[in-house]
Each structure stands twice: as structure tokens, then as C-alpha cells.
Design goal:
By secondary structure, the protein is α+β, with helices and mostly antiparallel strands. The protein folds into two domains: 160 residues, no CATH class; 52 residues, no CATH class. 44% of the residues lie in helices and 18% in strands. Helix 2 packs parallel to helix 4.
Length: 227
């Protein structure tokens, strides 16, 4: 991790993790609690939270547009709360959104707990509960963050912990074909949507998450990402 001085945002310094660091953190975290699969398949993200933070995600009525939040104390993560509306929906799409929301909140727990432990309560936190600040995570279908680096980092963790890079490579390999004069392998453009849906099914995430992860690690030739 690197830090940079900044005059913008809630802190004097902004932390930065390289993509390689994010990938390594997620593999190490899953491996330490015995939840890194031997082959591509759904990550037991709720069990990971239980083993890593010694809490179980809970459900509560949250404001419109808020999918979940992480509450912090001086010893780190105190609770992860998910919107009860998602639980009540009882659909396959909602179940997968619950998984991604838990993964996102785990990202805050892994990367941002020290900000609260140091009493540097950031302005993006809800401080209505004195001594127990929390990060409210709002619903957003687009991969844009408007400078909210903490949300971008939590989503980086979410993608890497739910679809680890090495496991994705194994899952994608059957779809790879030689391309160009050098015969380098890639995903055929005509098959990208089919591959995304296959990956979504294998890792039990919604297709948009699989598309973003594929775009990160197997970018399309035209550089476009269709959500």
C-alpha cells in the first residue's frame, strides 16, 4: 500500500493499492481461513466474514438506495448490515446482490478499519451513533465513483474475493482461442457475453460483476465495457 498527500477529500493522505496487491490480499485472506476453493466455484463469502471478523452479517431496514453498511469500533469491524429489502425479495438476483454487498463490505473491513481505529472519522461515514461510525454503501449500477476512492477500493476487493484471478483463469480457459498473427489466446468478441454469463453462474454472482471482472483481466480489443 502507498499513501499520497492530498488536499481533496476527507483525509490528508489517500491510500492506494495496486491491482496486484488487491489480488494478493484476497487470496491470502481466503487461504488463511481455509475458504480458497481448489477449483472454480462460489466463494463462501458469508462464512469468510464470520471467520475473519468474528461476526455474522445481519439484515435491517435501511434508507432507500442503501444496500448495506459496515460499522466500526476501536477494535475494527463490529457489524456488517445488509438491506432487509434484498433479503425479503427472495429472488436469485437479490441473493447474488447480497453476496456482492457482503463482499463489498468485507472490502471496507479489510482496507479501511484503521481509519476508524485511529479516530480519524472520515466525512464519508455516518457518525450518528457516537463512537461507532459506519460506512453507508449506496446502490450504484455504474462503475463510477466521483472521487470516492474508498468505494472503488471496496469494489476491487469485492471482485477479487468473489472471483479470484487464478480461479477465473481456470474457468475462462476453455473459452480462449488463438487470435492474431502471434496466436495469443483471447476471448472471442462474439462470445464475451456468453462467457460472462458462464462465469456468473460458476461463481454465483450477477452477470454485471462477471463482466466487470472479465474487463479488468481480459479486456476487450475495443476497450469498451457494456454493462
Amino acid at each position: 500500500m502507498k499513501t499520497f498527500r492530498t488536499k481533496n477529500g476527507p483525509f490528508r493522505q489517500r491510500q492506494y493499492f495496486s491491482p496486484e496487491e488487491i489480488e494478493s490480499i484476497c487470496v491470502d485472506e481466503l487461504s488463511k481461513v481455509g475458504l480458497y476453493p481448489s477449483e472454480p466455484g462460489p466463494i463462501r463469502i458469508e462464512r469468510y466474514v464470520e471467520k475473519r471478523f468474528s461476526i455474522s452479517p445481519t439484515y435491517d431496514t435501511l434508507p432507500d438506495g442503501v444496500l448495506g453498511y459496515t460499522r466500526f469500533g476501536r477494535n475494527g469491524v463490529e457489524s456488517i448490515v445488509i438491506s432487509k429489502a434484498l433479503e425479503d425479495e427472495q429472488s436469485e438476483v437479490a441473493e447474488k446482490r447480497i453476496r456482492t454487498t457482503i463482499g463489498h463490505e468485507a472490502g471496507h473491513g479489510l482496507l479501511h478499519a484503521h481509519l476508524f481505529a485511529l479516530d480519524e472519522h472520515p466525512t464519508f461515514a455516518d457518525l450518528s451513533d457516537a463512537g461507532r461510525p459506519k460506512v453507508l454503501c449506496r446502490d450504484s449500477a455504474a462503475a463510477t465513483y466521483n472521487g470516492q476512492w474508498w468505494e472503488y477500493q471496496a469494489n476491487q476487493i469485492m471482485g477479487a474475493i468473489l472471483i479470484p484471478q487464478a480461479l477465473l483463469a481456470t474457468a475462462v480457459d476453455p473459452f480462449m482461442v488463438p487470435e492474431g498473427l502471434l496466436g495469443m489466446k483471447g476471448i472471442p468478441e462474439t462470445q464475451r457475453e456468453n462467457v460472462a454469463r458462464q462465469i456468473a453462474s460458476i461463481f454465483d454472482v450477477n452477470p454485471v460483476v462477471a463482466r466487470i471482472r472479465l474487463a479488468q483481466l481480459y479486456p476487450a480489443k475495443n476497450g469498451q465495457l457494456v454493462l
